[in-house]
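In response to a reviewer's request, we include the raw inputs and outputs for one of the modeled complexes. The two entities were modeled together in a single run.
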Amino acid sequence: MIRVLLFAGLAEMAGSTAVTIETSEKSLSVNDVKTILIEKYPAMSDLLSKSLAAVNQEYAQADQHVTTSDELAFIPPVSGG
Amino acid sequence: MKSFAITREKIEIQPLIDYVTHPNAGAISTFIGTVREITKGKKTLYLEYQAYEEMAEKKLKEIGDEIVQKHPEARVAIHHRVGHLDISDVAVAIAVSTPHRAAAFEASRYAIERIKEIVPIWKQENWEDGQSWIGDQKEQVEYPSGQPEMKGEDKS
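The model returned the following structure tokens for the whole complex.
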């Protein structure tokens, strides 16, 4: 089970700021998680494709693998300041 | 006081100025970002800011580190507010001190531009006729390398 943090528009689409991905694999790539999320929430497709991933609070590449102990988050385009 | 912070409280600028004040400083530059009422002809009622708080504080500190790398004698403090903000409320405050003024001006500008690139904070505009999360103010949706580029080294 991998826990995914969501923010802004993504959180709204999921109706939650955190969702869990059930998997029998030991680890999944960031991209795998993206694909599973889009299957679960098709409305997220467009915004997820524009979002970055962060693993343990550091920006991560799509091929980086995450396990149950990692903190994975998807970061929609930011608008601070 | 935390020098890099995400806060729900009203931002006071003086503690940031006090924090960067230093005998070797000859200049302190401050930047204050406030909530604007009219954007592209549309009237904002209020903003709602959200952050990935722990990561956002780390990224604010990283911006401070980038500035110190370029200007070793600089001292930096940045506070960004989250939650409900009304028109004219302070959303972000930056204070930078350096021995000479040019670096202080440059670093303060650098900090606010970097915030808009790498710090996970989002604002939701609330208008009379609806609301929307704002993204991509710098039109940098595509990150070829998978993450925002580091620009610390080549800026003069």
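As requested, we also summarize the result in words. The beta strands of chain B are 4-7, 27-34, 38-39, 42-51, 75-81, 83-86, 90-98, 121-127, 130-134. The CA atoms of residues 106 and 156 of chain B lie 9 Å apart.
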